[in-house]
Specification:
heterotetramer; A: alpha+beta; Ubiquitin-like (UB roll); 5-stranded mixed β-sheet; 27% helix; 25% strand; globular; B: 147 residues; alpha+beta; Aldehyde Oxidoreductase, domain 3; 4-stranded mixed β-sheet; 8 strands; 37% helix
Chain lengths: 84, 147, 147, 84
């Protein structure tokens, strides 16, 4: 299993801040994962439908969206950050 | 000195600055960000990625200390619900060189804006809410430091 | 808001910053200079040109306010005998734009270093004294802003 | 008469912070004035002997050392400033 965490409007659209999913093939990228989740429809389609608006982190490190998941324990999906 | 705090409560700018002044460097720079109350905004709600934030800010601070001759850095970032006038973020730096103190302070706040895992949601008086959009300008500023 | 004070006594950084934060701009930058106690220094004696200082600093502050979109500026410069650890100078700026706040703060402190009519004399533990020499570097920094 | 004011080590060398001098010809420059004063010898020669180390203000405005004094009321002579 892989833990997926969501933030900001992605979290709101999906209606949850965290979930476990079956570990996909190790050459799956974050973008692939996003597409797989978006295919669930509903809030997933709404929050994850446009990958160009999304950013990601693997095991608490920012990564480009086309990074392969490999043996990641935690994948985070969120909009561009707006701190400071 | 390196002090990093991600917290919900307010902080005391004077005591942060006093600690930096006490390092003997001669120059202390700071930046404080405060919630603006314009356009009917009644609150800002800051969400963050707890498992990531502290480590991420630690790395940013280490970068700054490697790049400039700093004696001390203090970074405080609040999360949760903040009303207009409330402080959101503080960056303080101490150095023997005023340019190092000021530049590293600018670097850190630019980096926090574009790379710290925080998200801001605006709450307005009419009940409307909106997630703040990242500004390309902030990203460009942070990239400017990598040269 | 524009506050300029040339004084012998210490000042309260927290109240200066609070006044700048209260302007609602969202961003407050500051620089504080403190006497360094190295090399056996026991005191710094600051002399200034009273008839000129206030007007000169006023002009510098006006320049900064014309150049950056600032809501407030506070400049405090002490003179007289100051011991290691004592604050010498404070520059605080408030703006809607963090870059404006930070840049104008750097501009003002560079300008004070190279153009405010102050002279520093060092007093050492062995009784020796020495007037601080102006650094070409400071002059170059201030000139850099005229581009 | 013109008021001349001195600061820092110039003041210390001369042993006074201010004095009145006969108004020189209006095309006299600050550099000329410095040379005239330095010619008095003693602390004046010591404080004003090397004009390259000196800066000036006329009526509380910084001026280049070769500025003519004209109808100035106050001329200040001092080393480069070291504030901040």
């Amino acid at each position: 299993m892989v833990t997926i965490v969501y933030f900001a409007w992605v979290r709101e659209a999906i209606g949850r801040d965290e979930e476990q999913v079956e570990r996909p093939a190790s050459d799956t990228t974050v973008a692939d994962l996003i597409a797989m989740l978006a295919a669930r429809g509903g809030g997933y389609a709404q929050g994850l439908g446009d990958a160009t608006r999304l950013r990601a982190a693997i095991d608490q490190r920012f990564v480009p969206i086309d990074t392969v998941i490999g043996d990641a324990r935690e994948v985070a999906i969120f909009p561009p950050v707006t701190g400071g | 000195m390196k002090r990093i705090s991600i917290q919900t409560g307010d902080f005391d700018v004077a005591s942060e600055l006093a600690a930096l002044e006490a390092l003997g460097g001669g120059g202390v720079a700071s930046f404080t960000g405060v919630v603006r109350g314009e356009g009917g905004l009644i609150a800002l709600e800051l969400e963050h990625y707890p498992a990531m934030t502290q480590a991420q800010v630690e790395r940013i601070v280490e970068d700054a200390m490697a790049r400039w001759p700093l004696l001390g850095v203090s970074v405080i970032h609040r999360f949760g619900r903040l009303e207009p006038g409330a402080r959101i973020v503080f960056v303080g730096t101490a150095s023997r060189h005023r340019t190092a103190a000021l530049e590293s302070c600018a670097f850190l706040i630019d980096w926090l804006k574009s790379h710290a895992p925080f998200w801001k949601k605006e709450h307005f008086a009419d009940g409307a809410t909106a997630w703040v959009e990242a500004r390309a300008e902030d990203d460009a500023k942070a990239k400017g430091w990598s040269a």
